[in-house]
Amino acid sequence: IQLSKATGRVKLTVLNTIAKSNQVQLSNKFSCQSGCSSCCYRMARITVAEATIIYSNLIETKQWGVVRPEITRHLPISKNIDPIAWFKMRIPCPVLDQEKKTCRAYKVRPIFCSTHFVSSDSVTCDPWYTGGKAYIPEYQQEIYDKAVKRMKESLGPLGILGIELPIQSALLFSERISVKTGLTFEQII
Question: What is the rounded distance in angstroms from the CA atom of residue 76 to the CA atom of residue 93?
Fold first, then answer.
């Protein structure tokens, strides 16, 4: 199995979803803007196909060497932690450039990340915020649902690439199956 061919249609779905979400963002008043990375502290679960695309992007941009240590540092707790506890611990996504507060794989970010916005004041995104303002998430559910459906359809019999894992596990799994060349589908499983 050649992962680039297996994930090609998924990559198109990811890019199409990002483009649609960007249009929605431009036509609405969301608090989200470059440099606000509050959402990047949420526990992201992504498909192995999305992780493979992100992994390839990180290799191409020579960012994998920076991201991998971040992944291994938090991998043990990422497997069995409640997403709320993760968020309150302020553990960043391993792909987040904490200095610049930007995503290292922004142009191929997960569908989950590209379809989540906030219309409330950005201070409400802090999990420890105790002020009187309400946190108002603006999920682009229709765009998200269509993207997930297209992704599942395009993977067809390659269902293993549709398995959702915490981003840390998914990226390490993608590294492992991408590094091995000539693996059959059965060997990947």
Answer: 14
